[in-house]
Amino acid sequence: MLSFQPIPLLDTVTAPPLRLAERARRMVPSETRALFSMAARDDVVSLAGGMPSPEALPDQALRSVLEDVLATAGPDALQYGSAQGDAVLRERICEVMAAEGIAAPPDEVLVTVGSQQALDLVTRVLVDPGDTVVTEGPTYVTALSTFAAGQARVVEVAMDQDGVVPQALADAFALCAAEGRPAKFFYTVPTFHNPTGRVLGAARRREVLEVCRRAGVLIVEDNPYGLLHFGEQPHRALCADAPDQVIYLGSFSKTLAPGLRVGWVRAPRALADTLVLAAESAMLSHSQLAQRTVSRFLGTWSWQGHLGAVRSLYRERRDAMLDELAVTMPDGVSWTVPEGGFFVWLTLPEHLDARAMMPRAIDGGVAYVPGAGFHTRGGARNLRLSYSYPAVSAVREGVRRLSDVIRDESAGTGPRRLREAVAR
Prior knowledge:
The protein is of the alpha/beta class. The protein has helices spanning 22-25, 31-39, 59-77, 87-98, 114-126, 141-149, 166-178, 202-215, 238-241, 269-283, 288-300, 303-328, 354-363, 392-411, 416-423; strands at 45-46, 109-112, 132-137, 153-160, 163-164, 183-188, 218-222, 246-251, 263-266, 334-335, 343-347, 366-367, 369-370, 382-386. The strands form 3 sheets. Strands 2-9-8-7-6-3-4-5 form an 8-stranded mixed beta sheet, sandwiched between helices. It is globular.
């Protein structure tokens, strides 16, 4: 009969020293992620996260589509796929991009795990440690994390109400070149900008394309919100007018469902081939099941009808936020008026700091994202509000609570909601 004796344990076990790579030491949690645990309290209205409304997620339609995919292509849908992505889905992505004027063949498209992976792949392929990336200031907070992980130097360019300022962009390119550190690319969210909600106007778009062309700088156009417009027509993409100059990032996370994790990058063919190699080394292949589900939805359901419904839903919530801001905010507070997307960018009076005010806002029952997280420096007086996730009544209540917090902070009297609870 076999018997086994336990292996005696060593008196002490010493773990090997942890020697993080330089790029890992540069990784920091984003402002948004750090807020989630606080904002998840039942008594807090979160105007922080840029998540789609639960009402905008077509769960019943996707359940039907998923059942159909498994019934008709089950084994194939559960197998490995190509690193470039499902061929039929890439064709349908080209049809989606055509709504914004982009004419691209499927071989210029790489399917990614959300557009965040697309940005990570582009950064890995184009940026060496110490290279310069130029962005709008402010810019998408997780893009800053991606560039930091890639050990890039980030140079911010000023924006006004019409988007990035072309002359400031040209000056930044010239200064970077004079320093011997020319920009590798200009990263922009030109349509319903995250975090400000602004739109780069048509005339500005032509100017920006010309500035980048003269400087020999690629553009990375990040456009997750472009089809969530509240007007009659979507804005024409930068990529539509300069396909050899622009790398385009797209996503179904805001328009369909973020849990599917399906996005894409469209790039000039030579770069697209390199991005496929980078994707293959990162994750071998994508989820065939998720890709085929998105592809089947686009092919068998009314994609335009779905978009129309979610645009109406977000327009109603945008209007509720703007109405409540106009009625309740104290003097000295200003905000943007978005024409689509998820966000309003609010500016506090000069003596207030959004990050310092955040714990008091949580005590007052409302959460937002402080503006400093969207900058490499600056943004203390700004904060981002999202109207996409809460119901209309919660949007209104959240703005009222925020107004109380700002008013009390201005007066130096602390959170009103907390004082009232103590009084009771």
